[in-house]
Each structure stands twice: as structure tokens, then as C-alpha cells.
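User: Second chain of the day. Same drill as before.
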Amino acid sequence: MALQGISDWINDFGAKPHKDLGRAGTVCPFVPGSLERKVLWLAPEHVADKSETDVVELVSRYKRVLQEARPTSGDDER
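Assistant: Same format as last time:
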């Protein structure tokens, strides 16, 4: 499944240091914490047959979901 491949890449590349990065630390410093808190979300979508307008609306819906999401624990919970 495509999402498993992406998840593997995130764990094997994005969440680890890389010698060619030019600095210490992980490729993306936000990934390890996001994985730990389970807030990095992946969602399968079939967009090959969709119009540009349909894809923009799909992304806009996800944007609203993310903007409305609230922390459920930790320092960011309010």
C-alpha cells in the first residue's frame, strides 16, 4: 500500500539524521515529536480523475480539519 511506503520513508529518512544535511539532527526536526504524539496523519486519496477544483476543495477540507484539531494532552492542551 502506498501509505505504508510513505510511512516507512518518514520513519527511515525524515525522522533520522542524514550525513549530507549539513547540520546535526534529524532531516525534519518536527517529525520525531509528531510521531511520538501520534499527530502526523496520512490519508489515502484518489485524485487522478479529479479536476483541479476538486483537488483544491479536498485540500481545503483537510486544512479545516487540521485547523480545528486541538491537542488532547501535553503542554499544548488548553
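The chain has three helices and no strands.

User: Great, on to the next one.
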